[in-house]
Amino acid sequence: MRRLLSVAPVLLWLVTPLAFAQLPGITSQPLPGGGQSWSLPVQTLVFITSLTFIPAILLMMTSFTRIIIVFGLLRNALGTPSAPPN
Hints:
Blueprint: H1 2-19, E1 28-30, E2 36-38, H2 40-61, H3 64-78
Antiparallel strand pairs: 1-2
């Protein structure tokens, strides 16, 4: 086991150039109208990133956040417990 742990980093070091020998996955092609067409991995990354920001944008655009904050302050001012007692 100890010998395997000492040989593993050397083997990983020897295999590393093979991982970098592939073609690049990020490509950009110019379109006739002057725009650009990105590769599918880049389009997927941008789409998933935009999906993560949608809830934050929704909260910023609505008054939901303000209403929740005001109700929380009102509950504290009235002395209502935030969780039911045991």
